[in-house]
């Protein structure tokens, strides 16, 4: 009697390893769901990047327009105190 995993008269040959039967490959529906999920995730990431860039651009524009407005208010106030202006 040979130990487990060996065969032959003097147990000199290893027994062939039997591979378990392959189960069915991934179904087409599963593949389609994964692909659709990846596409959706990609679109969400692109949309988030776009929104963040728009917010950042809007803040930059607001800072520029706010500084111009503040400068004009300062000039108007100075003119009112001095008595100049139109």
Automatic annotation (TrEMBL):
Lineage: Eukaryota, Metazoa, Chordata, Craniata, Vertebrata
Gene expressing this chain: DLC
Name assigned to this protein: DeltaC
Domain of life according to the entry: Eukaryota
Transmembrane segments: 29-52
Keyword annotations of the record: Disulfide bond, EGF-like domain, Membrane, Transmembrane, Transmembrane helix
Annotated EGF-like domain residues: 1-12
Signal sequence extent: none
Disulfide-bond pairs as recorded: 2-11
Organism listed in the record: Nothobranchius kuhntae (Beira killifish)
């Amino acid at each position: 009697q040979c130990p487990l995993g060996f065969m032959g008269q003097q147990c000199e040959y290893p027994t062939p390893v039997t591979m378990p039967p392959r189960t069915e490959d991934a179904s087409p529906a599963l593949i389609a769901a994964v692909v659709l999920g990846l596409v959706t995730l990609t679109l969400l990431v692109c949309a988030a990047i776009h929104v963040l860039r728009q917010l950042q651009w809007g803040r930059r524009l607001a800072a520029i327009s706010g500084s111009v407005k503040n400068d004009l208010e300062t000039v108007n106030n100075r003119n009112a105190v001095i008595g100049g202006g139109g």
